[in-house]
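ingest -> validate -> predict -> emit
validate: passed (alphabet ok, no gaps, 320 aa)
predict: started
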Amino acid sequence: MNEILEIKNLKTYFHTDDGTAKAVDDVSLKLFKGETLGIVGESGCGKSVTVLSILRLLPEGTGVIEGGKIIFDGRDITAMSSKEIRKIRGNRIGMIFQEPMTSLNPAYTCGSQIKEVIETHTGIKGKEADEKTFDIMRKAGIPMPEQRMKEYPHQLSGGLRQRVMIAMALACSPDVLIADEPTTALDVTVQAQILELIKELQEESGMSVILITHDLGVVAETCERVIVMYASKIVEEGLTKEIFGNPKHPYTKRLLESIPSLKTEREKLPTIEGTVPSSLNYPEGCRFRTRCLIAGEECLKEPVRTKISETHFASCFKIN
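emit:
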């Protein structure tokens, strides 16, 4: 498979008054053309910061890429000028943000926000841009697109706002689509519609998708490969069938155990005791050891990446 995006040893830190927060710490991954890659893990583990680093959308003055490379289509994004990255952001790499109500501008109509993306990156203007905006809203499954073009975000339901975000992300037919929790706060019916829409548009255009989610059920249904992150690092990666059928890292196993099923409906769901450690002060060695049920003395050292198969890797001393 040909890769379209590769992250090599990425380190993204936030310099705060309390110290340096290592939000992404030595992360490496590959995204292949046409595939859907899932990234899972608890809140605060570095999933969103990883993809925001790809687009260089970090808070100015505090968020800094301290090391590593992000290779997109043969070029290093970390070495690009602001002008160069703007040509890629929203054009060749699109992003669906977590919460459309805060991501969309409340002062502009939905149509004008999509049209701005088209005019900025394609050079299409005026009536032709209006027609393209109408077309992409229709493709995104927005009913009565002529009317919705004139409406403001607060006039739409959560599901429609998310479709507007999808339309903006896909307006320029990107090579890569990043979907950061695209179904958060939506009811299950709308969630299924949004995921089906992304899948249909991907099949139509052949784009690659990075899907960030807490929902392991969504990952099982939509992703070819999965990356599991914990405390700013990748702890396991592999094909979806390998991660779900033969998990190796204790953290991955505990995550999968916490998925509700018909068998556990009347029982108390298993939980992972404790919380993700602060990125300002990670524990020595394996960062999961303070919550791990099988941690030993060797876990005081940094775990090495162990190859389980050609496509399956885990960073743990206790792999059996």
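The first helix runs from residue 47 to 54.
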